[in-house]
Amino acid sequence: MPTELQWYRLSDLINGLPQIDWYIYQIEMSGDYLFMRAKSGELGTRTMLFIINPEGEFV
């Protein structure tokens, strides 16, 4: 279960990515880390991985 800080960071990320034409297509937890994969809306081959630790910080 994600921590409250991870949820806040996830919410910020979800709200900000559409402004730069990216979207999240996969979210998963492994241990205490939250992994989010995003794709570019323009170039579907461009992907990005966001990792958030339990303190809500990007790794």
Can you put this structure into words, describing what you see?
With 59 residues, this protein is an alpha+beta fold. It has one domain (4-52). Helix content is 22%, strand content 39%. The chain contains 1 helix and 3 strands. The longest helix has 13 residues, at 4-16. The model has no long low-confidence stretch (mean pLDDT 90).
Characterize this entry briefly.
The chain has one helix and three strands.
Keywords:
59 residues, alpha+beta, 3-stranded antiparallel β-sheet, 1 helix
Beta strand %: 35-45%
Unreliable stretches covering 5 or more consecutive residues: none
Number of domains: 1
The tally of strands reads 3
What Rg, in angstroms, do the CA atoms define? Answer: 11 Å
Number of helices: 1
Along the chain, the helix and strand elements come as HEEE
- Note the main sheet: 3 strands, antiparallel
Give the oligomeric state of the chains in this entry, treating copies of one chain as homo and distinct chains as hetero: single chain
Briefly note the structural class of the backbone.
alpha+beta
| Helix percentage | 10-25%
Whole-number average pLDDT? 90
Shape: globular
Q: What is the terminal separation in angstroms?
A: 18 Å
Strand order of the largest sheet: 1-2-3
Question: How are the elements arranged and paired?
Answer:
Elements: H1 4-16, E1 22-30, E2 33-40, E3 47-52
Antiparallel strand pairs: 1-2, 2-3
